Amino acid sequence: MNSKHVISKDFLEWFVGFVEGDQTPRSLLHSHVNTLPGKKGPCGNLQLVVVQKEGRILQHIRHSLNMGTVRLTREGYWRYVVSKRTHIEALITMLNGKLVLEKRHTQFAIWVRDYNELTQSSIAVLPRSPLCLTNAWLSGFIDAEGCFNISLVKSPRYQTGVRVRLRFLLDQKDSLDTLTCLTLLWKGGFVGYRAKSESHCFVLDAFVHLNCVVSYLKRYKLLTEKRIVYHRWKKVLLMVQEKKHLTLDGLELIRKLKALNRRKEKDQTTCGLTMCHFLEDTNSHKGRVSRTKTATSVR
User: Fold this and answer.
1) CA torsion sign, 58 to 59 to 63 to 64?
2) Which burial class, exposed, middle or buried, applies to 198 when counting CB atoms under 10 A from its CB (0-12, 13-18, 19+)?
3) What three-state secondary structure class fits 1?
4) 146 CB contacts (<8 Å, ≥6 apart)?
5) Is 15 exposed, middle or buried (0-12, 13-18, 19+ CB in 10 A)?
6) 156 φ, ψ to 5°?
7) 9-119 and 144-298 share one CATH topology?
8) pTM (2 decimals)?
9) Class of domain 9-119
């Protein structure tokens, strides 16, 4: 890594959130350390591996960090790998003290322990960083696992016969504390449980609270192709606020935007990147979020 290379604060915060949020099974902090006969001390290697369908964002990460390689796998995924010893040390510095999820912090501590063993170093693992809305971490987390959902539900209460429902969702396994914290920061939403994927899901559906998401992402912008889905979703939100969803022309435009987002999401979810489980109407049991005793709700 070039010592003169400068990484912006916002990008680094986004990168940490993106790496923490990514639940693709192939994306991990890898370490392999052992002792071989005839060798003095431990030997092995450490890697950061991020696997995505979208190659452009991995190339952007490689260019911004000035380290690692990006290659296309036989399965059609793009794979970003950092393994050079000096780059691993730089990554430890970037991530240390900035991780938010407890499970990632635990994984990182093992990674640093193995690095210390390999290099005879004594790097101390700093405590986790608290979740907040004043940095770009959440933007990266949303890019990894966020969902912007548009639903059309039949309802005789509306002159068009259809109710437009918008939701913002964030899925993550073993991270109930972090998702619950979002209900406090945004003063709304609830945390439910998906039995099928055994994960918790933060759900925000009140329009007054959805505006908080828009305000946050205006300051800390999404960097992946999910921003396209988000901008269509935001357009529908604006149409609802301006009552345009109550006209047949407005409703038809919303249907088109919903269809475009659905195709975009399916293109990415079928390739291994979890973006959204709410692709069907609200009567479908697929990916349904249920409120449980552990769920927290703020209204």
Assistant:
1) negative
2) exposed
3) coil
4) 21, 168, 169, 170, 226, 275
5) buried
6) -70, -10
7) yes
8) 0.84
9) alpha beta
The H-or-E segment that residue 203 falls in is: strand 199-204
Residue 216: C-alpha distances to residues 161, 211, 272 (Å): 33, 9, 27
Give the burial class of 275: count Cβ atoms within 10 A of its Cβ; 0-12 exposed, 13-18 middle, 19 or more buried. Answer: buried
CA dist., res. 234 & res. 195, Å (int): 29
pLDDT at 271: 34
Question: Domain coordinates of the chain in residue numbers?
Answer: 9-119, 144-298
Between the two ends of the chain, the Cα-to-Cα distance in Å is: 48
pLDDT at 286 over 70: no
User: Which tokens hold the place of 87?
Assistant: 């780059």
Q: Specify whether the CB–CB gap between 225 and 264 falls below 8 A.
A: yes
> With contact defined as beta carbons under 8 Å apart, do 223 and 15 qualify?
no
Tokens coding 200: 């918790």
Least confident of 4-18, 106-120, 221-235, 257-271: 257-271
How long is the chain? 299
CATH 3.40.50.2300 fits 144-298, yes or no: no
* 4 torsion bin: left (phi>0), alpha (psi -120 to 50), beta (else): alpha
